[in-house]
Design a protein that fits this description.
253 residues; alpha+beta; Beta-Lactamase; Arc Repressor Mutant, subunit A; 2 domains; five-stranded antiparallel sheet; 5 strands; elongated
Length: 253
């Protein structure tokens, strides 16, 4: 697998969309025995929260029976490895969870998540917590081992291939940050995006109307719809959020 790593990284960096990248990455990680992944990223982290889930970029190939509960009902907030990722950067074996449980160091909420994961066969794997790009951002990926693999076996795979796996996930993470995404919101239309781009360039509504060949009222309508699509209150917030989501100044290919 090492011989093909560079070819894979080249394909990864040329991925044209998050969907294409994620499909490629999930298949590559399965080659190492990690066949179920959850990737999460937010720009809205605080000291006590990862922010509004509607603003998360969340990618997974777990079945709905798992994600509906773990993600949809918010169990991830109390998952021991999520809490570890909030406070650390780097790599951790899920052996840590068993050791903490044996030490009685997990809260009731954390134990409830551990028990749910056990029922769903999500007990063996690794978590990578990526280096933050700002105080408000956080990204991590959970790699669940294939059914039947023990943590000892997963640790052995990591001992042999861990550096390659980390490099591939780091590159995937950095590439994802360059690609457009909408979280759980709606994508901007070309007109909404163009109006926001002109606002980002410091233009007034009247300026934008002339530049776009529209009336000022129509420009205001596009900006209002952009705010609604992005679920924000002000146009300044819309410009910031669209920038975070890489929805501004993009090429229509």
């Amino acid at each position: 697998m090492r011989d093909t790593r560079n070819a894979y990284l080249l394909d990864l960096t040329n991925a044209p969309s998050i969907e294409r990248l994620w499909d490629m990455h999930a298949r590559r990680m399965a080659d190492y025995g990690f066949d179920r992944l959850i990737y999460g990223f937010t720009y809205y982290r605080t000291e006590t929260s990862l922010g509004d889930p509607n603003d998360f970029l969340m990618l997974t190939n777990h079945e709905a029976a798992y994600t509906d509960e773990f993600l949809g009902n918010g169990l991830y907030k109390n998952a021991p490895m999520t809490r570890w990722a909030m406070d650390h950067e780097g790599v951790a074996s899920w052996r840590m969870v068993r050791e903490l449980a044996e030490q009685g160091a997990l809260s009731d909420e954390e134990l409830a998540v551990v028990q749910f994961n056990a029922r769903m066969g999500v007990t063996v794997g690794y978590t990578i917590s990526f280096k933050a790009v700002s105080q408000r951002s956080k990204g991590a990926i959970a790699l669940t081992a294939a059914p039947g693999m023990s943590q000892d076996e997963a640790d052995a795979v990591w001992a042999e291939h861990g550096d390659d796996i980390v490099i591939m996930n780091n590159v995937a993470h950095l590439k994802i940050l360059t690609l457009p995404f909408t979280g759980l919101g709606k994508p901007l239309t070309p007109r909404q995006r163009e109006a926001l781009q002109w606002v980002g360039d410091g233009k007034t509504t009247q300026d934008i109307a002339l530049l776009m060949g529209l009336t000022a009222a129509t420009v205001e309508k596009h900006l209002r719809l952009a705010r609604e699509a992005l679920n924000v209150e002000t146009t300044a917030q819309a410009v910031l959020k669209a920038s975070f989501q890489n929805q501004m100044f993009v090429l229509d290919l």
